């Protein structure tokens, strides 16, 4: 339980964020009164610059799920799940080099809008529905679940009550202020979140006495493999090195390059260069989570083994009658035992930052999708004011549905693994149609439509079978490899269907794909250190060095 001082810090922080969100959103709307009402609300009038884009991308990605579950994964498996953070940098390079300039030049408002222009209306409808559902489950419900666990442990209040209060406060400034409010608050929240994570990392480092004592404890426990991010074939974690390099791109391209909740920040960019550099800026920030989110969990493991951290409150008896550690609560144990008063409140505020930024970003994306891709289809001449109203109603409904899903998702032992397990079965067909749509001019509308339908149905069936019959051969396939197999199946389907059902020649289609991978790189970009090509090379070199060091 945290002290009154810490509670006051949290209350002031939440009040401040809600105030900033409302003020920035209303101020932006008044400043641009008389302009494109819907464009200002959903895409901030396309005025976002690279620092805000990068910080907002990171804030939307990092939520309570990451703070809580990456610490849990660090406790359970060491640095292994840091792969999800560092592999993201490679995907963000793809976003910066190939996807972002395409979206900016095409002038699309949503990613389903792109699918309609590239393929047909049916593809747009399907992606809009899948994107809304995935935003509700992945970006909101899982975040609320992780946030509820933390708030219950810290404040001693009912998990659902605390989450409902925080999510409703977040919804107020998100629904009123639109993307401007979301991005401004996310920029603030990213700084607070990073500060809180750094504080807990330093506290764990100091309690352990540094790196060498941690390594000594791991040696004594025969657990030095926890320091390795690239595991050999047959590793008990179910995530060997080849699964990381084959499976993650399928998940990552969908998440970072084709998911409305994430890409909406890029769509609101002032211009192509701001979009590119903002994505790369986020790639550099993504280096930090391994050290400030995952590593503290590993420190918690060694601290508990050395008798320097009391985890008795986390011990429980499983269904087989064995005593196990419920590591979901390890982050809150670290907060309450490693930090003095005042600092506890700051870290708790950081956790609230993660929860609020994730929920606000997802609600804004849902509002945009429902307005432009669903409501406007049946009301094509609807005014900007009516589009905004439809978006606000849909965001409210999505939040209520997410709250209702929390008990179901709480059945996963690891929140992070549960999150990625869901993504692994959603992403393959979407990643497929986006990649082929942008890089292969022959990819036909009917092939994309059939691939989305069949691929999504196949992913759903495989997911259901694995959950209902976990002891079948398919049930033992790691979710990363399952994503890769499903992706390969979708590629084969779209290629075959394109051959069988080619598109008729159509004028104007050329703008909807790159003639070659070199085409998007012809833009010179900014001069000097801010050049997107230079930044991409530097980021790739840094990531290669880090993977070599922690292999």
Automatic annotation (TrEMBL):
> How is the protein disposed in the membrane?
Multi-pass membrane protein
Do the record's keywords include Membrane?
yes
UniProt keywords, alphabetically: Membrane, Transmembrane, Transmembrane helix
Q: Does the keyword Acetylation apply?
A: no
A Pfam entry, by short name: SSF
Membrane-spanning parts:
6-26, 52-72, 84-104, 125-151, 163-184, 191-208, 239-257, 277-301, 346-372, 393-410, 422-440, 452-469, 481-501, 532-550
- What family does the Swiss-Prot or TrEMBL record give for this protein? Belongs to the sodium:solute symporter (SSF) (TC 2.A.21) family.
What PROSITE patterns does its record include?
A: NA_SOLUT_SYMP_3
Principal subcellular localisation of the protein: membrane
Q: Which GO terms describe its cellular component?
A: plasma membrane
Record protein name field:
SSS family solute:Na+ symporter
Q: Where in the cell is it found?
A: Membrane
**Single GO molecular function:** D-glucose:sodium symporter activity
Note the InterPro entries from the entry: Na/Glc_symporter_sf, Na/solute_symporter
> Per its UniProt record, what CDD domains does this chain match?
SLC5sbd_SGLT1-like
């Amino acid at each position: 339980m945290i002290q009154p001082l810490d509670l006051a810090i949290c209350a002031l922080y939440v009040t401040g964020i809600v105030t900033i969100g409302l003020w920035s959103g209303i101020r932006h709307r008044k400043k641009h009164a008389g302009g494109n009402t819907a464009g200002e609300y959903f895409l901030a009038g396309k005025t976002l610059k690279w620092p805000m884009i990068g910080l907002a991308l990171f804030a939307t990605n990092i939520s309570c799920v990451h703070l809580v579950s990456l610490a849990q994964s660090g406790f359970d498996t060491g640095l292994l799940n840091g792969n999800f953070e560092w592999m993201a940098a490679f995907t963000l390079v793809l976003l910066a080099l190939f996807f972002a300039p395409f979206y900016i030049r095409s002038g699309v408002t949503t990613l389903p809008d792109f699918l309609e222009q590239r393929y047909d209306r049916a593809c747009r409808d399907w992606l809009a529905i899948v994107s809304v559902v995935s935003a509700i489950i992945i970006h909101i419900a899982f975040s609320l679940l992780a946030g509820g666990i933390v708030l219950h442990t810290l404040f001693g209040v009912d998990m659902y009550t605390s989450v409902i209060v925080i999510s409703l406060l977040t919804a107020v400034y998100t629904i009123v202020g639109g993307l401007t409010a979301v991005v401004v608050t996310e920029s603030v929240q990213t700084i607070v979140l990073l500060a809180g994570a750094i504080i807990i990392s330093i506290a764990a480092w100091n309690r352990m006495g540094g790196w060498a004592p941690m390594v000594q404890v791991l040696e004594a426990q025969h657990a030095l493999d926890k320091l390795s991010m690239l595991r050999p074939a047959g590793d008990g974690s179910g995530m060997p090195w080849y699964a990381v390099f084959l499976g993650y791109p399928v998940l990552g391209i969908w998440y970072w390059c084709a998911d409305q909740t994430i890409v909406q920040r890029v769509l609101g960019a002032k211009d192509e260069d701001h979009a590119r550099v903002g994505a790369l800026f986020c790639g550099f920030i993504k280096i930090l989570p391994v050290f400030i989110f995952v590593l503290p969990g590993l420190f918690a493991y060694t601290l508990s083994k050395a008798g320097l951290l009391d985890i008795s409150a986390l011990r429980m008896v499983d269904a087989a009658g064995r005593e196990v550690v419920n590591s979901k609560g390890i982050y809150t144990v670290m907060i309450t035992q490693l930090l003095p008063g005042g600092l506890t409140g700051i870290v708790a505020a950081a956790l609230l930052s993660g929860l609020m930024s994730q929920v606000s970003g997802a609600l804004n994306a849902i509002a945009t999708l429902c307005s432009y891709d669903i409501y406007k289809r049946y009301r094509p001449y609807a005014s900007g004011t009516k589009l905004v109203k439809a978006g606000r109603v849909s965001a409210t409904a999505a939040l209520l549905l997410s709250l209702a899903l929390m008990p179901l998702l709480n059945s996963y032992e690891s929140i992070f693994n549960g999150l990625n397990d869901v993504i692994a079965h959603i992403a393959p067909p979407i990643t497929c149609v986006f990649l082929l749509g942008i890089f292969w001019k022959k990819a036909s509308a009917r092939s994309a439509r059939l691939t989305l339908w069949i691929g999504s149905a196949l992913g759903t069936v495989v997911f259901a079978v694995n959950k209902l019959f976990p002891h079948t051969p398919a049930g033992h396939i790691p979710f990363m490899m399952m994503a890769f197999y499903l992706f390969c199946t979708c590629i084969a389907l779209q290629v075959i269907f394109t051959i069988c059902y080619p598109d008729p020649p159509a004028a104007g289609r050329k703008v909807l794909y790159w003639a070659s991978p070199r085409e998007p790189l012809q833009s010179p970009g900014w001069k000097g250190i801010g050049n997107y090509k230079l930044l991409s090379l530097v980021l790739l070199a840094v990531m290669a060095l880090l993977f070599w060091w922690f292999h």
